[in-house]
Amino acid sequence: MLDVSRIGRGKIELHREKLPLSAIIHLALETSRPNIEANRHELVVSLPQAPVYVDGDLTRLAQVMSNLLNNAAKYTPAGGRIELSASTVEKSIVLRIRDNGIGIPPHMLTKIFEMFAQVDSGLNRSNGGLGIGLTLVRRLVELHGGSITANSAGSGQGSEFVVRLPMAFPDPVREPVKEKPDQPVIACRRLLIVDDNEDAAALLAMLLRMDGHDVRTCNNGALALQIAGEFRPEAALLDLGLPGMNGYELAVRIREQPWGKGMLLVAITGWGQEDDRRRSKEAGFDRHLVKPVTSSMIHEVLNEIGR
To answer: How confident is the model at residue 2 (pLDDT cuts 50, 70, 90)?
Structure first.
């Protein structure tokens, strides 16, 4: 309620900057992923291969997308499918969140963004309905010069929310590399991601591939050893909580190999206590990152290759 009332009075200040779309999506997914996984939904993400930019507030735009993803997870029966896609149309970015959930009655499609709009008993089945969430989403999108629409074939037919935002374009005059010595260009690297959460591994791999890296993924330690021996990655990003051979054991096994002695090993985990960091160092890890991990954090670590 506070956010909506502040927006209505023009009291919210956007901290706008040129943002890669991938950063917005990554932050939104980190927020909404627990709800999606708790309901055992299949999540399919499709983003443009080339970098795309938005002039906006990272926190607020991620709030928009996570709100829509959480609604999709909430109003889709367990084991459903949620699709998040992005495309460019002329000078706009078009984001679509589609689900196969309970849908929206046709007469509510234009009213659903109104504060405290009541849809039907199905859509209001938990926590009193949609409340002010979609009102906040619409107003935040409009503050960014964009628009949002809802589509549905009716009750039981799923729904789709479409967000359109103005695309931002690089300014070659204002952004020469020489003016940013503290942000060196990241060289394309061979990377291995090992995580038993297949969706998390696929998402991180997709974001890193968008930056030009050659990325392989796998979901267990034994296969990781085999792939690493053949692929010879320059860096391996390992989840510590792997089934069977855990991340600590995998790091030790990699360091035992001639090709693994100079590899950059990065622990990516939800475990961040001092004892966890000590154990990862003893196992041979170079860095210990605590989830949620962003692609910018990975890039900072990759700068250490060759030092």
So the answer is: very low
Residue 127, token pair as written in the block:
């926590």
Candidate from 50-54, 55-59, 170-174 with smallest mean pLDDT: 170-174
> What are the tens digits of pLDDT across the range 158-200?
999 999 999 998 666 544 444 444 444 557 889 999 998 876 7
Q: Is 46 exposed, middle or buried (0-12, 13-18, 19+ CB in 10 A)?
A: exposed
CA distance 63 to 27: 9
What pLDDT shows up at residue 186?
Answer: 57
Domains of the chain listed by start with CATH number: 2-168 (3.30.565.10), 177-302 (3.40.50.2300)
Helical (H) or strand (E) element with 5: helix 2-8
Q: What is the mean pLDDT of residues 79-92?
A: 95
**pLDDT > 50? residue 111:** yes
SS3 call for 272: coil
Pair 236, 264: CB distance under 8 Å:
yes
Q: Which residues contact 80 (CB under 8 A, 6 or more apart)?
A: 39, 41, 42, 99, 100, 101
pLDDT at 305: 79
Enter the tokens of residue 122.
């199905």
- If one counts every other C-beta atom within 10 angstroms of the C-beta of residue 212, the result is 11
- For the beta carbon of residue 302, count every other beta carbon within 10 angstroms: 22
Complete DSSP assignment for 223-258: HHHHHHHHH--SEEEEETT-SSS-HHHHHHHHHHSG
